[in-house]
Design the sequence.
């Protein structure tokens, strides 16, 4: 019997926001990610003007939330002249007490959830 569920109708290369993300301890992330996390909890200051902007979750890899829930922050990459590919994405308000944070080191292609 064929299923007509959204998962069954999805193209094989589409990813679902329901996918399980690896959960990691903050201490296992690069020290630059740990430093960025401290800045988030302190409310800044942040080194990049884009830090703190709304993250739209267009890739749909994170759980679906209303627009404005997620904010992105640059994680410095040593030797990189641009912002690089590493980010922390945190959700919740106010941003200084996020409900959840995610780390990506490949510019939103994959995420790891930070443990509570």
Sequence:
């Amino acid at each position: 019997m064929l299923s007509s569920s959204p998962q069954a109708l999805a193209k094989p290369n589409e990813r679902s926001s329901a996918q399980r993300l690896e959960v990691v301890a903050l201490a296992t992330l690069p020290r630059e990610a740990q430093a960025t996390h401290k800045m988030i909890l302190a409310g800044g200051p942040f080194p990049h003007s884009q830090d703190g902007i709304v993250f739209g979750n267009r890739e749909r890899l994170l759980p679906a939330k209303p627009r404005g829930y997620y904010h992105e922050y640059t994680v410095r990459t040593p030797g990189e002249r641009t912002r690089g590919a590493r980010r922390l994405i945190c959700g919740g308000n106010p941003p200084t007490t996020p409900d959840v944070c995610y780390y990506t080191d490949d510019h939103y292609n994959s995420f790891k959830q930070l443990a509570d």
